[in-house]
Amino acid sequence: MSARDSIRRWRLGWWCLGLLLGSGWAIPATIAAQALARPNFLLIISDDQAWTDYGFMGHAHVRTPRLDRLASESLTFTRGYVPSSLCCPSLASIITGLDPHRHRVVCNDPPRPAGVSPAQYYQSAAYREGRERLAGFLEAQPTLPRELARAGYLSFQAGKWWQGHYRRGGFTHGMTTGDPERGGRHGDAGLSIGRTTMQPIQSFLDEAARAQAPWLVWYAPMMPHDPHTPPQRLLDRYLALTSSVPVAKYWAMVEWFDETCGELLDTLERRGLASNTVVAYVTDNGWITDAATGRYAPRSKQSPYDGGLRTPILLRWPGRIEPRREEARAVSSLDLMPTLLNLASVPVPEGLPGINLLEPRAVARRSAIYGACFTHDAQDLDHPAAGLRWRWMVSGRWKLIVPAAWNEPGAAMELYDIGGDPTELHNRAASEPRRVRRLQQSMDTWWSPH
User: Fold this and answer.
1) Burial code of 179-214, b = ≥16 C-beta within 10 A, e = fewer?
2) How far apart (Å, rounded) are the C-alpha atoms in residues 73 and 224?
3) Choosing a second label site near 109 at 20 to 30 A (CA), which of 16, 68, 192, 420?
4) Domain identity same for 60 and 9
């Protein structure tokens, strides 16, 4: 069904509802409430930001006033996780609600032949064929914008996007074309959002208003992701707080990103949309700046540690979602798709592992969350497990990391009491063998690679 057909059906439903109301027919209150309360969605996805790097998470120097305010107005989960600590598979999991080994986009790039530089490979036919296969894997899955379109939603992609043209993810509108001649690897024109312009989102909101349709905006700017090129006015503030120029640049990028989030939130207020828009926040993976090189530190991006996997997850709907801070329960970015679909009264596809975060019993009942980290470049597109580096799980205050011997030879199993050791410095695997066995059995039950 085309986006235009979806809008026609949506308008027809409202017209019928109006006739029924005008004729005096009795409509069940729940049906009427669902129709009248269908919200818009603004999904904000930070790119390469550690879970600690917010004012509301207690950072001593980084300023994030707009996200701090958003957190105070939201159901805020401080122990959120993404299933994989690498951009492309993490984003694919957010939009499908599936673990990477299930949607099969486990890497940033297809397999690269030995001796070929990344720059050479990105220009090759083999690379384009590999990217086409990865896009096809995601295209075969239900996605958040595709499911919302069935209910008449318009959707807009802005920012990072790895899977070719935005329509392949189910978006009705967007910025990324996937054209290899225009830097189509991970966003092309979409990468200007936030850093250079916010106008494309404004134009989309104008179009949605003209169509009188509910909408989803995917705001995933390449921020604070490197290159760390913040405005000088922000950099000067942080150069006074650290002796490391790379750290100062990263901190300034975080505040710059926060400002762009504030611009979007102000737009909702100015347009009178805030009261009927759900704002959801998550990051794609963590980042800890190496103070000397400016690159990411070993226990952050692409690692199985919380520095690469943990993120706050926020949900705001004024008057409908009660603001509070949830510190105890671990949740997952996989929970966003079922949560948002439930808020839109749209059926959730079968087989999703996530839960509705607005159901406290479901959050309390879940005993563990799981994930897996893979090689940056795929090893075998037909066998995701070939690129596996680690599986991991969090159960209560405990975290188990299990290395894959074929990619991490000689690596030991790791167990951390992250409740008392949040930086994961003290491996308890040797002293807790029974706990390790129990948790590994649970992990093996979850793990079912193709």
Assistant:
1) ebeeebbbbbbbbbbbbeebebbeebbeebeebebb
2) 23
3) 192
4) no
* Average pLDDT of the residues of the chain: 92
Instruction: Specify the DSSP class assigned to residue 391.
Output: E
pLDDT digits (tens, 9 = 90+) for 66-104: 999 999 999 999 999 999 999 999 999 999 999 999 999
Residues 28 and 141 in one domain: no
**Are 435 and 398 contacting, i.e. CB atoms less than 8 angstroms apart?**
yes
Q: Tell me the whole-structure pTM to 2 decimals.
A: 0.91
| Domain that residue 350 falls in | 39-369
397-418 pLDDT, tens digit per residue, is: 999 999 999 999 999 999 999 9
Q: Which H or E run contains 310? A: strand 310-316
Q: Look-up: residue for tokens 């940056």?
A: 376
* Domain shared by 83 and 232, yes or no: yes
The DSSP symbol for 335 reads G
| CA distances, 325 to each of 116, 191, 401, 425 (Å) | 48, 32, 27, 26
Burial call 320-334: b when 16+ CB within 10 Å, e when fewer: ebeeeebeebbbbbb
- Look at residues 66, 46, 45, 64 and name the one whose alpha carbon lies nearest to residue 55: 64
| Rounded Cα–Cα distance for residues 249 and 234 (Å) | 9
For residue 318, how many other CB atoms are within 10 A of its CB? 15
